[in-house]
Amino acid sequence: IELALATKKSFLKTFKQTIRNPASRFLSGATLGTKRSLDHVKFQGMDVIYTFRRSGVGHVLAVSGLHVSVITFLFLLLFAGIGMRAKLYAPLIIFILLIFTLVTGARPSTIRAAIMNSVAVVAFAFFAYSPRKAFYIGISVASLFILIVNPLVLFAPSFLLSFGAVLSLVLITPVIMDW
User: Fold this and answer.
1) 21 φ/ψ sector (left φ>0, alpha ψ -120 to 50, else beta)
2) Rounded to whole angstroms, how far apart are CA atoms 62 and 109?
3) What does pTM read for this prediction?
4) Each residue's pLDDT tens digit, 136-167
């Protein structure tokens, strides 16, 4: 947790020193989940948070499973691109996801996505499953794990929507790509 907090502090400091306000505050909110960073921030006379919500893109300011998946994919490309073996980079990616989850406040959506992506990376790296099959395994194991820990979450809209959305993307994307 100390490492995660130190990492977050370092990122926030770097954002502040290298990017002008209010863009630095937006970046810290969108990447690290620091929602308070945009409180009372005005751009061209308008409240930034209100503007995002009113335009229907307020979700951009919340760290979600999409962020975790993008980070996973970027590190997969990076490590594979430099020629590192999958069995070596899988633990590194899982550690990075753990740190990211802690840095962003360990919100339920981030935890779900980190579990899902970690299982998929392990299935891909250690069991040589195709990326598509690894995602199916990731979704299945993550949902099973979360339901074992808390079976009542099955009725939570956030659980149903997040797993439903990911499963829909995995099932529908190939059909659309073929079309």
Assistant:
1) beta
2) 10
3) 0.76
4) 898 899 899 989 999 998 898 888 888 888 88
